[in-house]
């Protein structure tokens, strides 16, 4: 099915199941521990043995010699995979450095060996006996020091590194009010709960990977490319995933090394990347340096806006596209954005929840706060004044498919009690706390992608959906079940959803908040095909048949789904593909974050006291799980604002605080009441679901609202994240 | 984790004897620190002596009005104990500021005193660290040292002592009761229990080989307002950047001990003497001889600010 004209009224609009809050249908399995994760597939691979990854002890250089004798002789050891015995390996198109290093070493903790033993403990102990002599080389590890050497990177995800409209320099030069500031954000770790993990088994030349992966079809392709085997020989199974946040978009060392290990020892092997290895072995969100210039008139109306971003990655890597939202969020005739990529020999940078916007808005939305103050305009009002209903780079000929930023700002401000905010900083005191409020806009692109599904009815009238879509804790099972239930007129408990298996039709996968809308649209397409088949079998005209209460109805006649399905059941498969509606219309999701903080008058400890937000993201398929996504993302925004930072040791070239004791993320005590309001919106140009993504929107801008609240509380403007006590104390003293 | 043998000691004497006679033997109590270190092979004991079943889990009043806390009393139980909450509230508060509920259920009084530093370079066996491997150098001093100590440090090591409980015990002038391999009991004032790094940062306590902690004894309660204030990078479940344990007397006097800033739980008499002059004077006295790095010099300011906050609180109460 092709979606190339705006959606009209369709079966989803009935809203009997879709749009109603539902508990997650996989919830009980997850909280009771009965949902098997990749490392626990004893059922599928009962005789698996254990692999432990040896990570490089240097950041850059070569392995001069490896001595495996002691490790091989250790108790229980069955084999050791290294570059020397792994055979010729290709490299995936999505990982920057090889997932098995050697003799060249590309980054600290890059996997250089896998030790396989009969028990987990034996593998881990023996790994310590692998002796490696390195010849280190000098590397570059300091983004700030290298930033002048940044180069323009190639297009990333179809968007250019630089954009221009009008005459930025001219516009900025003659603006009545100018903001010109630098902001920095550090490297971030995804810190999802389940580590990267895989159980691998070969059957002849066929490989099965029970793994934790957000993008099944990408994964199959990357495995095939790396091992040099046909895609048809690879099966990926990933029904349950304990969080990803982008860290599991790609093939990583656990899966590749489990496959190589299983081949070497001739039986299934499981590998998890240990928690302390994750920050340096896998991907992270790259640090940025950002410069923002805004030129406005004295009322705060923007005429010129410029955003430049520097970030680093390994040779051949990609930039953090933090200027993305600045291309689209506010008005202004004269504009420029630019990304510069610096070569660093740190571990690989890549996508983390809302790549681009999550850190771009940490800068842009503080700059807007600075502009509001400079013009003496209320920060909510400033954003309303600068609203634009079309893509401001392309002009009015590219309108937004739907854009309710202003509604979000107004409704959010109202609910939060924004009118009680004092414009002048440092005015409100509550005991030992200085209290302030901050606002920030939320913006995240809406991406759509081809997505397929298979759907059937069995002899009992149960509806079964199969797609390789993943549920990374987001609630995909449930919204896919809801979609199928709505389309076929059955209650949700009559639907069985099967996900995350490469034997199922290829879906859009989970990433970039495209998953919910795209994957349910794929189910919609398949369900339309099945409805036609059912109607035909009933002898009813396909466009007039009604699907209600487990019946197919026409005129006064009806037949049950079960009867029509018959003993064999009835199946249909289709996918949703997209025309150019996302080119003709700008598509994005919007929101407004509000935050109240207290800052200790003496110690500068910051406590978030309240958060609230209003969000517009098309049809909200399951308000319950959508709210969970938003509050979880707001929490991550608090982390980015106040505490999260991978600390770089620029001598050794690695992230020092590489475990969960030292890489701090918010805990319960850090997170207060969070209020989420969804603004009614149907986006008929996004898909027949009229939905957009919502999984990443909540992090976008959340941290900036915290930063702006700190300013309002204290009068201290910090531009280097995270906004920790040491920085606040230093700024106070200055 | 290297393979090890394990025994469950039946008496305190036997435990001490076994520990002294087996090369590389260690006691294991809650295991919340030791097991983590063993998994990373930062510690590689060959033999573990389980001291959980020696009956060292009681809290008793002493003849002279103090409190004797068995070495195996869990942090949760100690914090909840009625006489601790009544008479040594600072200890209860310090305990509850540490770790998490789950960890405190396992962590013991003896183990908490002997927990090792949280220096990130100590935790990565590929990095130089004099404490982990004598003579290998110090990774932290020129590296990331934001969380590390500024007092009692040496050219060899600037690691912080991470315990909250021990700071309160230092404030209360506790004494550590032990039994040696020869069966002899000894009482070590807590001030002498933890060693400064000097040239031998791997030596962290005054315990002799085989010596086992049997209890910690608190002297008579100190009257006054007991407070423990811990400042950290998030609201809970993080080690202190700076912590202050204090007892404010009715006469304006006070005593102080500090966490997060010292190579051991930190207390100086001069700071107590300055109590009546206010936060700034106390901080100055406490911080005498501080040696900071570019990353952790903020701790000096933070000590003063944390004290100021405590004084402000006391004034509000008065
Ligand atoms: C994630 C995390 C966060 C934490 N946060 C904090 C915090 O905020 N504040 C804080 O104070 N602590 C914190 N801790 C540390 C925790 O308090 C300690 O791990 C715990 O107190 C150690 O006690 P244990 O009984 O488990 O000791 P074990 O791990 O069993 O032993 C520790 C050491 O003491 C020795 N030992 C134990 N008992 C005896 C004895 N009777 N005689 C002689 N030697 C003995 C052992 O041989 C070993 O060397 C945290 C720990 C973790 C893992
Ligand atoms: S400060 Fe001490 S523990 Fe840390 S690296 Fe240096 S020697 Fe090791």
UniProtKB/TrEMBL annotation, chain A:
Coiled-coil boundaries: none
Stored SMART domains: Ald_Xan_dh_C
Gene3D superfamilies, per the entry: Aldehyde oxidase/xanthine dehydrogenase, a/b hammerhead, Aldehyde oxidase/xanthine dehydrogenase, molybdopterin binding domain
Single GO MF descriptor: iron ion binding
Protein name: Xanthine dehydrogenase family protein molybdopterin-binding subunit
Pfam families according to UniProt: Ald_Xan_dh_C, MoCoBD_1, MoCoBD_2
Gene source species: Sphingobium cupriresistens
Record-annotated Aldehyde oxidase/xanthine dehydrogenase a/b hammerhead domain positions: 32-138
UniProtKB/TrEMBL annotation, chain B:
Domain of life: Bacteria
Keywords: FAD, Flavoprotein
Residue stretches making up the FAD-binding PCMH-type domain: 1-223
PROSITE patterns noted in UniProt: FAD_PCMH (PS51387)
SUPFAM superfamilies linked: CO dehydrogenase flavoprotein C-terminal domain-like, FAD-binding/transporter-associated domain-like
InterPro entries in the cross-refs: CO_DH_flav_C, CO_DH_flav_C_dom_sf, Diverse_Substr_Oxidored, FAD-bd_PCMH, FAD-bd_PCMH-like_sf, FAD-bd_PCMH_sub1, FAD-bd_PCMH_sub2, Mopterin_DH_FAD-bd
Single GO molecular function: oxidoreductase activity
Family annotation (Pfam families): FAD_binding_5
PANTHER family membership: ALDEHYDE OXIDOREDUCTASE FAD-BINDING SUBUNIT PAOB, XANTHINE DEHYDROGENASE SUBUNIT C-RELATED
Name this protein carries in UniProt: Xanthine dehydrogenase family protein subunit M
